[in-house]
Amino acid sequence: MKLFSCLMALLLFLLQAVPGLGLPKDTLRCVGYHGFCFHSKSCPEPFASFGTCSRRQKTCCIDTTSNFHTCQDEGGHCVPPEINCLQEQAGLCPHREWKCCTEV
């Protein structure tokens, strides 16, 4: 029983020590884009919806007054990294490794 208690304590320590290990992937993506998780299905002003959080239980909202604008808001298209852009621009894409292009 002592061994089991020690293993559980070690597991709990690791879940707290390693950043993001205990969080769902959609929550990590939201936080990675400086987003906030709201309980409501719609985002309050000045936020815009940018996916989900907490295993699709909450809405990820990003601040539209900051420099973090979505690619489509800027008139671009999100493309995977293997596609070459003729002109790349700033903007958030739903997948972190994707890039925002005005022309492909």
From TrEMBL:
The main location class comes to: cytoplasm
Q: Any signal peptide, and if so, which residues?
A: 1-22
Keyword Secreted (UniProt)? yes
Name the source's superkingdom: Eukaryota
Q: Which Pfam families match?
A: Defensin_beta
Task: List the subcellular locations.
Answer: Cytoplasmic granule; Secreted
Q: Which GO BP terms apply?
A: defense response to Gram-negative bacterium; defense response to Gram-positive bacterium; innate immune response in mucosa
Does this UniProt record's set of keywords contain Iron-sulfur? no
Can you give the residue ranges of the Beta-defensin-like domain? 26-61
Molecular function terms from GO: CCR6 chemokine receptor binding
UniProt cross-references to InterPro entries, sorted A to Z: Defensin_beta-like (IPR001855)
Cellular component (GO) terms are: extracellular space
Q: Which UniProt keywords are given for this protein, alphabetically ordered?
A: Antibiotic, Antimicrobial, Defensin, Disulfide bond, Secreted, Signal
What family is this? Belongs to the beta-defensin family.
Instruction: Write down what this protein is called.
Output: Gallinacin-11
This protein's species is Phoenicopterus ruber ruber
